[in-house]
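Protocol check, entry for the methods section draft. Step 1: assemble the input record (protein sequence plus ligand SMILES). Step 2: submit for complex structure prediction. Step 3: store the structure tokens unaltered in the notebook. Ligand used here: manganese (II) ion. Step 1 record:
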Amino acid sequence: MIFIHTADWHLGRLFHGVHLTDDQQFVLDQFVGLVDGVRPAAVLLAGDVYDRGVPPPEAVELLNDVLDRIVRGLGVPVVMIAGNHDSPTRLGFGSQMLSAEGLHIAGRLPAGGVLNVPLADSDGPLVVQAVPFADPIIVREALAEPDIQTHEQAMRALMARARAAVPTGARSVLVGHAFVAGAEVSDSERPLTVGGAGTVPAAVFAGFDYVALGHLHRPQRAGAEAVRYAGSLLTYSFDEVAQPKSVSVVEIGAPGSGVATGAADGAADEAPLGAPAATPPASVRAARVAVEQVELQPRRRVRVIEGTLHDILERAPADEARDDYVCARLLDTGALLNAMGRLQQAYPNCLHLEFPRNELAGGGAAPLADPVARSAGEHFATFFEYVTDERLSASEGAAFGAVLERLERRRRES
Ligand SMILES: [Mn+2]
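Step 3, stored output:
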């Protein structure tokens, strides 16, 4: 059975002030084409569908259009869950009605923690198990397990419920949104907890034939080969420029056709917290799984250019991709006037500046001796020189002093 695993669309995202909806539409058009070509049993969308709980109307329209083309147009079911960026209730609107049409949404945590979508092919039954992102306190109440405190405990309890819900002999594919410890992070992910990592060990996902994860934006496996992040739809931060973005086409073979999962995957040492011991025996063999990562071409690439302002501007005419979203790392050390404005004449989508040399010297701007000890006149002279590149003359300094004195006198008298 074939699935397409994708995640972290972040529809409606602003990237350094630029709305990415057109860029998202551009790759989602390719995505619909891929679904049309592959004709999977289902599309699995593992959370962070939207970038925020109340997405802009353009993002809602885009999702509505893409889902309609896939579910009704191509007849391919979609299973999607809420991530930590989504509003569970808003994402789940209409879910009972829509599931009859083939759109299965797990927004709020379902009763029992898992939304089961049964499928079958010539190899037998397979159940897709959707578990939306939820804070531990929500999981604690939904499962009535008062000892749950952490993300790890919550996920262990949810996975125990999921395993227990798999019919005997059926294959299982889990769709979840979590931060697996040890996986590689990117700047555009929002931490799941304030002041803590909120990680779960990869071993909590043992026993499923495939685990389709969202949250981390780099496509990667997490622990076992069949526990994977599809990665985000687009490059959403400048530290991701070296990551090719892709979606995963996942083929799952007959039950037990893969390598044995055992103690090495950590299945045997699970001790689910207060939950039924539904951990599979170490001898259980998962289905054979083959994953192909398919790259989607962005409308504009995101990249970092480096050099002095002068060099970058001089090289720009030879650069054929000047429309790209650019971060300029300026190697200049002195003050630059209107660097962003000048760069944007060459690179209209230059979005961010970095000054690595100044940062090395300790702080963005040139340090002032002791800002508090300086008089207002001295501050003004420094500012004047910074803005005009000329020194404040004696008469200009005296004029500023006279204005200041008059204001000061008026303040005392009022
Ligand atoms: Mn995300």
